[in-house]
Amino acid sequence: MVLVTGGTGLVGAHLLIHLLEKGENVRAIYRNLDSTKKTKALFSLYQKNGLYDSIQWVQGDVLDIPTLENAFQEINQVYHCAAMISFDPKEEALVRKTNIEGTANIVNFCLANNVKKLCHVSSIAALGDLPEHESIITEETEWNPEKPHSDYAISKYGAEMEIWRALQEGLEVVIVNPGVIIGPGFWDQGSGELFTRVKNGLSFYTNGLTGFVAVSDVVDVMYQLMKSSIHGERFTLISENIVFKDLLFSIADALKVKRPKYHATPFIMNALSNLDWVSSNIFGQKRQLSKASARSSYTTDLYSNEKIKNALNIKFEDVHNYIKEITNL
Fold this sequence. Notes:
α5 runs parallel beside α6 (151-168) and α7 (192-199) crosses α9 (244-255). The chain has helices spanning 10-21, 37-45, 49-52, 65-71, 92-112, 151-168, 192-199, 215-227, 244-255, 266-283, 291-298, 306-312, 319-327; strands at residues 2-5, 26-30, 56-59, 77-80, 117-121, 172-178, 180-182, 204-205, 209-214, 233-237, 240-243, 262-263. It has 13 helices and 12 strands. It has one domain (2-327): NAD(P)-binding Rossmann-like Domain (Rossmann fold, 3-Layer(aba) Sandwich). By secondary structure, the protein is of the alpha/beta class. The two termini are 31 Å apart. Helices cover 44% and strands 16% of the residues. α1 links the parallel β1 and β2. The longest helix has 21 residues, at 92-112.
């Protein structure tokens, strides 16, 4: 049987559909019944309602060790998708605890229960930092602790250290490092917020650059890696490197709304981040634009997907076309 953590998130929910379509027996962890509603709605969106009832749900939490005891019974493969994504400095401790300690718990249960293979969903945020003489980030680019990193990036890097510990202790592991994941059904979180903001009349764009990938490609690669003999490796998953401006314009065109009109320079983004900090401290609201988020909006990082393309001979879906597809679901 296969265990999926984070089955109520974008990647985990799409992975559940993919695994069930492949005929796998699947168990998924959920924290509370409300959290499963989006997953069920996603199955309905894809007209896969009949498959949903095949999931064996187990209530649990990656930070609650007693609940994991039941979840790991008779499990031979684990897809660890659960993570906390936040760039609010006030949530730093919880982000690190969830992503690092939670991953350590999953690793420990895999080792204790003789799980055959573990696939961990990391992020391009956990990849290395380019030295001056290089121009593209690969799986071999070294992490530089002296460079600025978001709390989220640090937590995902720390989680990877737990995965490599598992490898040293005899567990077969693979790590995927997706770029910004585009997919339907979760419009109030992650990349889904980009669609919601554009739909509601987002006025600003930036000229930052990063890697993007369709969620369908992410789950397909994860499944192929787990079925292969490949282990002890990590793979960058991006379809292409895209300028934020172009991505936002594609979203606007697909939604048939106005494109963002104004270029937000690094100076403007930092000023908005400072105003957000003031507002957060005065009104006690959650940060909407942290320093790390502002910085990433104008950073121009290029990522290579050559390793996974060579390993699995995969052809990634064009992100701009995928945006059109999911807005028409």
